[in-house]
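pls ignore typos typing on phone
zinc ion + seq
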Amino acid sequence: MPPKNQNASHCTCKYCGRSNQDTPNPWLPPELREQSGKAFLQFRRERGKECTSCCALIRSKKRDFYDAPDLEISLQNDQRKKDTFQSDLEEFEAKKRDDFTAKSNRIPAKRVEASHSTGFKMRMVMGYFWPIDVLRRERKEIPKTLTTITYNGRNLRGIILDSSHGTPIGVIEMESYDDKTASKVTLLYKFVSGANYISYEFTC
Ligand SMILES: [Zn+2]
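k done
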C-alpha cells in the first residue's frame, strides 16, 4: 500500500490525472521526500486542478499543442498527444530529481573538504643562544667575539651553540618558522663548532 497524504484537501490534476493523495512528489528523489515536508504531488492552489509539475512543463514548452487553450480536452481525446505529454512529463520530472540531487550533494561535499584539511607547521631549530651570564655560570670559555640579539626588548650578548652543549636554564632557543606572513629578515650569527667559529647566515 503506498502512503496516503492526510494533510491536504483532495486535488486531481486536469492534465496528468494524478492526485495529491497518493502520488509521491515527482520532483524529489524517493529518499528525500519524507524529510522535505512535501512528500506528495504539489498543487498550485488549495483544491486546485493543475499540479505544479504539469504547469511548469507547459510553461517550459513552446510547441503548439502546449499553447492550445483546449489542451486539457485534447489530452483526453488524442492518444498520440497524451503519449507525447506523458513522455515529456516523465523526462521533465526526472531532470528535476537529478537537479535536486546534484544540489543537495554539493553542500556536504564542501563540508567534507573543510573537515579534512590538514596543515603542517614547520620550524627549524637554529641552535641555542647562551647569554654571557649563563656562559659564566656554566664555566664556559667566553670568546672575544660575541653576538648580540634582542630578546623581550633587551639586548643580550653571547654566543650560539648547538644542543650538544646542553640547554641550561637561561639559554634561548633559536628557531626559524615557516611563516609566509612574516617579514624576511636576514641575520648573521657566529656559530661555534668545536674550537672554530663559523659564520652562518640564515633568513627567517
Ligand atoms: Zn499534472
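Helices lie at 30-36, 52-60, 64-67, 71-77, 79-115, 132-137. The chain has a mean pLDDT of 78. more later
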